[in-house]
Design a protein that fits this description.
Structural class: mainly alpha
Helix content: over 70%
Order of helices and strands: HHHHHHHHHHHHHHHHHHHH
Largest sheet: none
Number of strands: 0
Radius of gyration: 26 Å
Strand content: under 5%
C-alpha cells in the first residue's frame, strides 16, 4: 500500500471519530419520524407549487424535503420560492444545511457563515463549525481556518475535537507545500483524553506526510490502532511490530481489522507460540472460517502442542460446525 493511501485511510478513520455535529449536517428540527416529514411535505407541496404559501411555509416544506433525504429538492425550493435577502438566520442555516447535503459546499459555507451572524453562544459556534467544514470541502482553506478557530472559542466542550480535526486537515492539505509539521502538532496538544485515538491517527498522518514512518507507527501502536499500525509496519518492514499488530488486531471488535489481521497472519506471520495459535484460530472463526480454524489448531497439535486448553478449544470449534464425533474424541483427549 502506498504512503498516500495509508495517509488517506488513517485520516478517513480519524474524521469518523469526531462528534456527530461535525460529521453530518442534519435538518434543524428534531423530528426523526419520516412519516411526519412525509405528511408535512404532502400538505405543503401544493401550496408552495401554487404560489399560495408564505415564506415560513416554504421553509417548512424545504425542511420536510430535507428530512426525507431529498436535499436537492429542498435546495431548489428555497432558491426559487424565497428571496435570499429575506432569509433570517434560521432560514440561512436551513439553506446552508441543504446545500451541504446536496454537495454544494461553497454555497453551504457562505450561507452557514451568514447564519452564524444571527446566533449567539453555542448556536453560533455550531454554525461557524459547519461553515468551516463546508469551506474546507470546497477547497477554501484560507476561509475555513479562522472559522474553525472562532468556533472553538464558542464550543469549549469540543474545542479539543476541533483542534484534532484541524490538525488532521493540515496534514493532508499542506503536506505537499511544507516540511514543517509543527503547526499541526501544536494543535494536537489541545486534544481531550477522549480524543486520544483521533489525535494519534492525526499525529501519525502528520509523521507519514513528513516521511517519518517510524514515529507514525509508534503513535498508532500507543493507542492500539492495530489496523492502521499493521499497514504501516508491513510497509516499513517492521516484522516484530507487524506481528504484534496482527495478533492484537485478530482480537479486535472491528471485523474489518480482524479480517486484515488474519490476512497478514496467513501471508507470512504464522503462529509460533501457543497464544498465537489460539488468537489466529479465534480470528479465523470471527470471519466465518471455523473449519480453517480447526485445521490451524490441528496443525498446532501436530507440532507438539497437545495441551488440554488447545484441545478444548478445538473441540468447541468442531462442535460449532456440527462435527460432534470429532468433538467428543477431541474432548476425550483433553
Amino acid at each position: 500500500m502506498s504512503q498516500a493511501r495509508r495517509l488517506f485511510l488513517i485520516l478517513a478513520v480519524a474524521v469518523g471519530a469526531l462528534p456527530g455535529m461535525l460529521r453530518a449536517q442534519l435538518p434543524l428540527a428534531t423530528r426523526a419520524d419520516s412519516t411526519g416529514w412525509w405528511h408535512e411535505a404532502t400538505v405543503l407541496k401544493p401550496l408552495v407549487e401554487g404560489g399560495r404559501a408564505s415564506a415560513r411555509d416554504v421553509l417548512r416544506y424545504a425542511e420536510a424535503e430535507l428530512g426525507l433525504g431529498r436535499a436537492d429538492r429542498a435546495l431548489q425550493v428555497i432558491r426559487t420560492a424565497v428571496p435570499r435577502d429575506s432569509l433570517d438566520a434560521s432560514g440561512r442555516m436551513l439553506l446552508g444545511t441543504a446545500a451541504y447535503a446536496a454537495g454544494e459546499f461553497a454555497v453551504a459555507g457562505t450561507a452557514l457563515e451568514e447564519a452564524a451572524a444571527g446566533f449567539h453562544g453555542r448556536d453560533r459556534g455550531i454554525a461557524l463549525a459547519r461553515a468551516a467544514e463546508a469551506f474546507r470541502l470546497a477547497g477554501a482553506d484560507s476561509v475555513a481556518k479562522p472559522l474553525f478557530r472562532d468556533a472553538a472559542l464558542l464550543l469549549r466542550p469540543i474545542a479539543g475535537w476541533l483542534a484534532v480535526r484541524e490538525a488532521g486537515w493540515l496534514a493532508v492539505r499542506e503536506a505537499s507545500v511544507t516540511a514543517d509539521p509543527a503547526a499541526a502538532l501544536r494543535l494536537l496538544r489541545h486534544a481531550p483524553p477522549e480524543a486520544a485515538l483521533g489525535a494519534a491517527r492525526a499525529r501519525a498522518a502528520i509523521f507519514l506526510a513528513s516521511g517519518d514512518s517510524a514515529r507514525a507507527l509508534v503513535s498508532l501502536m500507543r493507542v492500539a490502532d492495530w489496523g492502521a499500525a499493521l499497514d504501516v509496519a508491513l510497509e516499513v518492514g517492521d516484522t516484530a511490530r507487524a506481528r504484534e499488530a496482527a495478533y492484537e488486531g485478530a482480537l479486535s471488535s472491528d471485523t474489518a481489522v480482524v479480517r486484515k489481521a488474519v490476512q497478514a497472519i496467513e501471508a507470512g506471520l504464522e503462529p509460533s507460540a501457543q497464544r498465537e495459535w489460539f488468537v489466529a484460530a479465534a480470528g479465523l472463526n470471527r470471519v466465518g472460517r471455523a473449519r480453517e480454524a480447526i485445521v490451524l489448531l490441528e496443525k498446532a497439535t501436530a507440532r507438539g502442542d497437545t495441551s488440554a486448553a488447545l484441545l478444548r478449544r478445538m473441540g468447541e470449534l468442531q462442535s460449532s460446525i456440527g462435527a460432534r464425533g470429532d468433538a467428543i474424541a477431541t474432548f476425550t483427549r483433553a
